[in-house]
Design brief:
Blueprint (H helix, E strand, L loop, with lengths): L1 E5 L5 H11 L3 E6 L15 H4 L3 E4 L5 H10 L4 E4 L6 H6 L1 H22 L4 E7 L24 H19 L4 E6 L2 E2 L10 H11 L6 E4 L5 E3 L1 E2 H14 L6 E4 L4 E3 H11 L7 E4 L11 E2 L4 H7 L7 H15 L3
Parallel strand pairs: 1-2, 1-4, 2-3, 4-5, 5-6, 6-11, 7-10, 8-13, 9-14
Antiparallel strand pairs: 9-12
Helix pairs in contact: 1-8, 3-5, 5-6, 7-11
């Protein structure tokens, strides 16, 4: 199969490329500019995989640049991962977030409709579209109302609705995945867990004092390894009901952010040796206290389940930043 990954230079994209190439597929990536940014993914993409990738340059907000790629190449499927995916940034730039996430997605959908209507589309939505349901309501399933509480969630909800409407109205082979919290190698340090790991490595190397700046440590999340998430995406591309169906993708175990931090410190040999200090800049204006997902729909269809334990994920993330951070 021939697949296009938008957002291939982001967090999830390189891991998905590794998986798809390993399974024998032809993989293309869509990139915003041509200044060599594609080489950044070599920190998790080995040379043997990288040399098989084909890159296309454009801007998702510019419909013509998206349409051009679709005209040129007959893709079997598109994994639409590209997004402004940082909720705190969405409060600072709501318009830019909406353009990238909602308008960008509309452009991808319209280019498929106009030029490759048989091409399957996986739109990567987010658990943020569900907002902040009460824990007493139980695990969040796909029929929960979409009630986002930040501009990022709003932009994703708009795109989520649009993709599902196009699938029904235009009979296009589109489906939606709603990913819950996930992390792993290459996760940016602006995000929780990765922020802690980044600081832990800097403390180990003597680049900062033994004080970690944290956000809200009481928030509860099911945390999934990014590589497990990529397996779910690949399986769903093969067998999802491409009629606008939505599928939750997420982990099994529930942790507070404080528990994840304590485990990270233990793995790094710094348990009891580091002070935790709340940084107001790391606290969301509107927090989501708990997110627990119901992923039975995805699991029943594909047989998928998370396989990588949280300790392994944190060890790999620590090793990643240990390589990245140099004097």
């Amino acid at each position: 199969m021939r697949y296009l990954i938008t957002g291939i230079t982001g967090f999830v994209g390189p891991h998905l490329a590794n998986l798809l190439v390993g399974d024998g597929h032809e993989v293309h990536g869509f990139i915003r500019n041509s200044n060599g940014r594609e080489d950044d993914i070599r920190d998790v993409v080995p040379d043997r995989v990288f040399n098989t990738l084909q890159f296309h340059f454009g801007d998702l907000v510019d419909y013509e640049s998206v349409a051009r790629v679709l005209k040129e190449v007959p893709f079997d499927g598109i994994f639409h991962l590209a997004a402004q995916s940082h909720p705190p940034t969405s409060f600072l730039d709501p318009r830019g977030t909406f353009l990238a996430n909602a308008v960008g997605t509309m452009n991808v959908a319209e280019a498929i409709r106009a030029h490759r209507p048989a091409c399957r589309l996986m739109f990567c939505s987010t658990s943020e579209v569900y907002g902040a349901p009460e824990e007493s309501q139980g695990p969040i399933h796909e029929d929960f109302p979409l009630q986002p509480v930040n501009p990022y969630g709003v932009s994703k909800a708009a795109a989520d609705f649009y993709v599902r409407e196009r699938a029904v109205s235009e009979k296009l082979p589109f489906f939606v995945t709603r990913a819950f919290s996930h992390t792993g190698p290459r996760r940016g340090r602006r995000f929780s867990i990765a922020s802690d790991i980044y600081q832990i490595v800097r403390i180990q190397k003597g680049f900062q004092p033994p004080v970690i700046k944290v956000g809200t440590l009481s928030s509860k999340r099911v945390v999934m390894d990014v590589r497990d998430g990529c397996r779910a995406y690949s399986l769903l591309m093969q067998c999802a009901a491409a009629n606008g169906e939505a599928y939750n993708v997420g982990g099994d175990e529930i942790f507070t952010m404080g528990e994840i931090l304590d485990l990270s410190l233990e793995i790094a040999g710094l348990a009891g040796k580091v002070k935790k200090e709340v940084d107001p800049k790391l606290v969301r204006p509107i927090d989501i206290p708990v997110q627990i997902c119901d992923t039975r729909k995805c699991r029943t269809l594909t047989g998928w389940k998370p396989e990588i334990p949280i300790r392994k994920t944190l060890v790999d993330l620590l090793e990643y930043y240990t390589r990245k951070i140099q004097a």
